[in-house]
């Protein structure tokens, strides 16, 4: 397992609900937990992944997400078992929507 930690500038999240969990850890998939934390204009992301050596890819995918979505003031934990960048982006969007009360 490899552990990666990132911090990205991001617009503050507009509406906060309870912490949100999205996805299932399994072969080729991941789970994401998003909760309140950190500074309002940044999001912190911690990743535990079975796929070693993809730090640059994670940084690019997460940086793009943070730039395109208001995720500031959040802490995101990702448990990964080899998900593709497209699945990561999809699960992040789902978790953020749930966190903002969109799943109700």
TrEMBL record:
Keywords: Cytoplasm, Phosphoprotein. Signal peptide: none annotated. It is found in: Cytoplasm. Pfam families: ACP. InterPro entries: Mal_deCO2ase/Cit_lyase_ACP, Malonate_deCO2ase_dsu. The keyword Glycosyltransferase does not apply. This is Malonate decarboxylase acyl carrier protein.
């Amino acid at each position: 397992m490899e552990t990666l930690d990132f911090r990205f500038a991001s617009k503050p999240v507009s509406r906060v609900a309870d912490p949100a969990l999205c996805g299932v850890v399994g072969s080729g998939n991941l789970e994401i937990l998003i909760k309140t934390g950190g500074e309002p204009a940044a999001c912190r992301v911690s990743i535990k992944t079975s796929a070693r050596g993809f730090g640059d890819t994670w940084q690019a995918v997460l940086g793009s997400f943070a730039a395109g979505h208001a995720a500031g003031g959040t802490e995101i934990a990702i448990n990964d078992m080899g998900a593709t960048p497209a699945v990561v982006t999809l699960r992040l969007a789902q978790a953020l929507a749930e966190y903002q009360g969109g799943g109700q």
